[in-house]
Amino acid sequence: MIPLSQPDITDAEIRAVTDTLRSGRLSIGPRQVQFEEAVAERTGRRHAVAVSSGTCGLHLIMLALGVGPGDEVITTPFSFIASANCILYVGAKPVFVDIDPRSLNMDPEKLEKAITPRTKAIIGVEAFGNPVHMDRLAQIAQAHEIPYIEDCCEGLGGVYRGHPIGSFGRAGVFGFYPNKQITTGEGGMIVTDDDRLADLCRSMRNQGRGEMAVPANTSGLDNRGGSWLAHERLGYNYRLSEINCALGVAQMGRLDAMLEARRRVAASYIRRLMDFRDLILPTVEEELAEAMSWFVFVVRLNDTYTHVERDRIITGLRRHDIGAANYFPCIHLQPFYRERFGFAPGAFPIAESVSHRTIALPFYNTLDDTQIELVCLTLKVMLDREQLMKR
In this structure, what is the dihedral angle of CA atoms 246, 249, 252, 257, given to the nearest 10 degrees? Predict the structure, then answer.
């Protein structure tokens, strides 16, 4: 079996985790500080706030910005569902904007038309790690004096026009699920230059406690008077453990090598698939060739294929022990969103057309050329089969 994704764990990560377990400090400790500092430095941000998932990070930012009932937040329909769910968590309404067919990110021209007096924030997403348009989206938001939030959960380590992914807009959020560029098992990170936003997120991730609070199992009441059982605001248990953070610190130490490995795998796929006339390969601008942070490798069938035929190809790949998936189903056509908001097919035609024809192929750091060749040959067989069935 060639899996769809696989984390890259070495002895360095294992040692970091076991050392943390032996330390006796498993939450709110030095590994969290190290991890936050490493991500802040990498993204050029003043603050990084570790949380238990990227989804939690997006939720906290919505709360910190005061987004609530009656507000609208603009985002893309072509993303993982958390990009829109975080808006619902605070009682606001998601407003979707169709995508650009090359970058697969929100179309800046369409964004302008979606802004209303009720627009409280804009959430942009680097689809599959591609940062194209992030600067323009941030500029449009700034021109309208609307906070721009970067859902950069898929793009850690990438750079666009001299700016690190995560540095566009008021704040950004990374995710560290096992299929990401680096993993902490589960986890996320908020990055921002906004002191107040960072302080609010730190408090809310820790049950609404104040900055001075320290765990009762260390001293109960520190010399600054911060009580562990004093809560300044409504909060949540969105902390990231020392074990997760230790894993993150070790992974950050290897980030550049892992990004290079992912670029190698992507380049290998492109060389082998560039002559497949039925496929549209990922579009990466020339300036991103050495700066792209690849999250997944997603190809697209041309517009002669239906989503039924795409699904058959995915099933065929899986039957031949090749991991494959349909990245991403459109958010507005998910059952809950259709029932609640009345969305119907045709609302965002570009996102829907792309969504119906995408195939995510196996993609991870240690995928070798033999495995890539096997994936490509199997995909060719499935494509040929579909062509024969059309006759």
Answer: -70
Fold of 255-390: Aspartate Aminotransferase, domain 1 (3.90.1150)
Find all residues with CB under 8 Å of 41, minimum gap 6, and list them. Answer: none
Chain segment 177-212, per-residue pLDDT in tens? 999 999 999 999 999 999 999 999 999 999 999 877
**CATH tag for 11-98+105-252 (out of 3.10.20.310, 3.90.230.10, 3.40.50.720, 3.40.640.10):** 3.40.640.10
Please provide the DSSP assignment of 149-197 as one string: EEE-TT-TT-EETTEETT-SSSEEEEE--TTSSS--SS-EEEEES-HHH
d(CA 312, CA 308) in angstroms, rounded, equals 6
Domains 11-98+105-252 and 255-390 share a fold: no
Q: Is 180 a catalytic residue?
A: yes
Q: Which of 93, 110, 180, 380 is catalytic?
A: 180
**264, 269, 274, 279: CA torsion to nearest 10:** -140
> Where are the chain's structural domains?
11-98+105-252, 255-390
What does the pLDDT look like over 23-39, one tens digit per residue? 999 999 999 999 999 99
Q: How does pLDDT run across 167-176, given as a tens digit for each residue?
A: 999 999 999 9
